[in-house]
Write a structure and sequence with these properties.
single chain; about 170 residues; mainly alpha; 6 helices; about 80% helix; about 0% strand
Length: about 170
């Protein structure tokens, strides 16, 4: 007697995205040295979050939002504990805001761009508070704003492109 094991497309997509996310986060320091480029500038955690939103499902996006910073902290002690909490909260807020705004705006690009910007604003507000009460070291903005805006527009454009393509297929 043989049994067939098959995975649904969303489950398989989630497995692939999650494995890629863990590998990317694990190898980010090595890739930064290899390419002589600080990979954190392209926001690898948010990149994987966007891929999860587009190619898996909401639950998987929330799972990655919470666990990627925790995984990074567990394997490298970076980011520091309180910053790890901030990043998890920011990414989780990003997912929640995106789906909230998507249902109200009906424009995937604007919903994602707004969700990223609003979650970043919340991150910087709480980071400022954490710096003020000495939970994390000084330095409010480490990635230049123009790079953050550029990656936000690229990520939002990807969401628009992929979901527009999916709706016409």
């Amino acid at each position: 007697m043989t049994s067939t094991f098959s995975l649904s497309r969303p489950v398989l997509g989630s497995i692939i995205i999650n494995a890629a996310a863990l590998l990317l986060i694990y190898f980010t320091p090595a890739l930064s040295h290899l390419f002589n480029f600080p990979m954190y500038l392209i926001e690898p955690m948010r990149l994987m979050l966007i891929l999860a939103i587009v190619h898996s499902d909401r639950r998987n996006a929330y799972l990655l939002a919470v666990t990627l910073p925790l995984f990074s902290f567990a394997i490298s002690a970076h980011p520091v504990f309180y910053k790890m909490l901030l990043i998890s909260a920011e990414l989780t807020l990003n997912v929640w805001l995106f789906f909230l705004l998507k249902s109200r705006m009906k424009n995937d690009f604007a919903a994602m761009l707004s969700a990223i910007i609003l979650s970043k604003l919340a991150y910087y507000l709480f980071k400022f508070i954490f710096i003020s009460i000495a939970l994390i070291g000084p330095g409010l903005i480490s990635t230049p704003i123009w790079i953050q805006l550029l990656t936000s527009v690229i990520f939002s454009g990807y969401v628009l492109m992929m979901w527009k393509k999916g709706s016409t297929a």
